[in-house]
Structures are given as C-alpha cells and as structure tokens.
Amino acid sequence: MRIVEAPGTIEVLEMAIDAIHARGFEMDPYNETPYFTFSYYNCPIVLSDSSGVREWPAGVSLVHAPDDRRLVRAESADLLNTWFHFDGSGVAACLSEYEIPINTVMDLGELPFLRSILEEVRQERVQQPLHWQDAVSDLIRRLFREFGALKSDLDNSLTPAQRTQERTLRDIRMRVHADLAHEWTVAEMASLGNWHPTWFATVYTRQFGVSPMNDLLNVRLRHAEALLIHLPMTVGHIASTCGFASVEHFNRLFRKRMGCTPSQIRKQGKR
Known about the structure:
Blueprint: E1 11-21, E2 26-27, E3 36-41, E4 45-49, E5 52-56, E6 60-64, E7 72-73, E8 79-87, H1 91-97, E9 106-107, H2 114-127, H3 132-157, H4 160-177, H5 186-191, H6 197-208, H7 212-230, H8 235-241, H9 247-258, H10 262-269
Antiparallel strand pairs: 1-8, 2-7, 3-6, 3-8, 4-5, 4-7, 6-9
Helix pairs in contact: 2-3, 7-10
C-alpha cells in the first residue's frame, strides 16, 4: 500500500472580511511579524512590496511572509480590504505548488471566490465541528488554488497591447472609485483615457464584466454597506459620501440591490 504524505496544516490566526478605515489610515509596522498575511484591497492603496512603495488601483492582492515590511496607506479613498493572518507546516508547500509570489503585489482585479471561501473559514472557526482545523487547511488551499489558476490565466492570455489597455482601464477605474461622491458620467470617465465614450463602455464591460455605471453603483453600495456596519455615521452622511443624490435615492437603490434596508444591514452587522 502506498502511503500518501499529509500536506501539512494551514492555520488561520485572525481574519477580516471588508474591514474599513477612514481615508488617511496608515500602518507601517517594523516589529517582527511571525506569520504570513494575505490581503486584498477593494480600494486604491499605497503598499510596500519587494519593488518599493507605490500606489495601486483597487483589486490588488499581496501575500507577506513573516517579517516583511507591511506598509499600508489609504491616500485617495477610505481603506476597504479583506485579509487573514495564517501559518503552519503546510503554508510553504501550498504557496509553492500554486505559484503564489511572496511580497509581490498582484493586480488581478476581482476575486469572485474570496468572500465565499473566507465565510466558510469563519464558520469553521466559530462552530469548531469535528476536524474543523483540517477543513480550514483545505479551504485555504482551495483559495490559493483558485488564486493561482486566475493568475496563470491572466498571465498567459494577454498581448502587450491588451496589457496596456487593461492598465489604462484599471487606472481610470482607480480614479473613479477614489472619488465616489463625484457625479461621474461615462463620457467623463472615457475622457480620462482620451477614449470615445461608446468604445470606452464596450472595452470596460468586456474587461470587468459590468458596465461603467453599474460597476460604480456596485462599489458605492458595497462601500456604503461597510460604512453602515463599521462606522457610526448617519445614513444621510453615508449617502452623500458614497455619491447618492439623496437619502431617498440611496434607500431605494440599496433595498433593490441588497435585498434589505440600510438600517437592517446596520443591525445585522452589530450582532
């Protein structure tokens, strides 16, 4: 009988989904950090990695090894990110197997699998059923397997011209999402790249899977949801901060898209 060697454990030490801090937040710990950290940023963000310090658009990810410098600074927008600290005997092999670079910012855009997998991790850690530690290890391996597959697909599917176009679209998206209170139009977004509005809307939808205005609305609502849950701001202040013309307009769209009212989200988040 062939004995298959166990892949080792991966332990999630701490985690947060859609954590939020106000614009101007900065963290730059130089003390020893004895664990790995995965971070995904839903906002434009200044980060340090092996290449130095620079601002990145929304949708970047980063895996830090123990003792890496971890500068994070929200200069142009509120900080909205998802992260988890992790460690264990199976971490190095997992990251190597799925070719996940360390201390290197990865600009992959949306990670459709991230929230659902981490919600499962959170449930396992809270309920702690039989063999829950093994389940957490398996979930984190699944997350990095999905992440590595997405990275490989993007690395191998674009021509140099397409990469330039993608970079321009991401830069425009970063500038738009950094100023949610502004009354954006498709024409104004297109002008940031010197593109015709119709062509811009077409390539934007192809790139991100959603039209420019629907993408902006989704980001405004996700940001409003995070503010409702985490900060003691009035609904009116949140509505104006996120670019809605009135509280009534905000409430109507929020309920239509999110399936409940802002007040209900706030109550659910405090449980």
